[in-house]
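User: Can you write out an input/output pair for a complex, sequences first and structure second?

Assistant: Here is one pair. Inputs:
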Amino acid sequence: MEPTNSLLESLSDEELVQRICHATPREASECREILFSRYYPKVAGWTMKWTRNRDEALEIAQEVFLRVQEKLSTFRANSRFSTWLYTVTRSVAINRGKAAARRPAVSLEHEAMREPKDPGRGADDLAAEKQIARKFRAAMARDLEPLEAKVLYLHHVDGMTLPAITDLLRLDNKSGAKAFIVSGKRKLKRHFGKWLRVQTSAGSSALEGSQ
Amino acid sequence: MSRKTLQAWLEAAYDDQAECPPPEVWLEAELEALSPQARQQVDSHVASCPRCAAERELAQSFDRDEMDLSQREIRDLVRKLDELESPQIIEFPPEASTVRPAWMMRLAVAATVVLAVGLAFQLSRRQPPTLPDAPQIEATRSSTVDLLQPIGDIEVAPEEMQWNRFEGADSYQLVLSRVDRATLWETTTADAIIEVPSEIQAKFSPGVTYTWRVEAVDSDGAVVGRSSSRQFAIAPESGNS
């Protein structure tokens, strides 16, 4: 006899995962429904932060659970299920954000397009660039306001849109995250523009296109 | 050395994750599980690291926010996922299919004819047959795509990735990720081997573990087979190729 729904509901997340992987299809489906009932609202709420559009947030959340379903058998319970789910959710959202940021239609006018990588670069160049990047990061932490650095990271590295950042950080100034992008970039150009030109010895501005 | 835009420098500045804890550490449950000393260390780190300060905001909003969803919306999701568990990739025991469809019978007859012709051809040859070259890639008959290489510890960044050909596959979708599940490369190919582009090779770092998997897709776009995820790591002493 298969366990009743109320018994299944009393199971921990990790126990439900075990059952999904090893139980009969019907019981696995019930376990999946219980597990996803616990987390679908949370994942959708989080993806809503990224998209600020309910339909799109649900679409991304479904992609997250599709990935979860695909990888569920690899979950070894070395971490909490909720922690593992967060890493999947974050990865899906960031990849979507980066893909969207690469599309010209949604790029801000003042954003620079990335230059193609020089195929001739060797290991020495890469190592040198990594070293400069680490110094750049340390200097950013020193010279930028924490909020400016945080907004720059969320926008340029994670690919989050400015309205989404405004919402996430609960910024209540008039222009929201954009104000911190503008002031942060101005400081970066002032502090690092010349320095980066020298470091990369390219002969033209390393901050080219970032007006 | 190549020129970079501001955006590229910002990305590069945070590309090295060695100094930062993994992003999920900022979830409340994970923070609570830390020892007081470890908690002090991450608190001290986040004060000077914009990356971790941003990641903490993201993780804490995961703890905090929920969308108001109906039970019906949740059931719809589960139903969709149930449907996506394609029956084509489930291996049924032989006794499950007592009635064989007509196409299967035709296929069996065709296979018998091919075998008979092949056998007759071999017997008619006077010279002893030479051994064919050992196939590098074999067609897989189970529902699993077998990944061949790279797997485990390797000396240099892989220049190509290879798996066994899968019967019925029209193309293959490959996903290469870091262990934090950030996707490095997603691509589709018709062959069971693919060259790793130089820009992807440049992303490999020694000592870091990478995960990859492959899905076999038929001509209708349906996934007919999947590999399990396999990992590889480049030996720390070797550099990027």
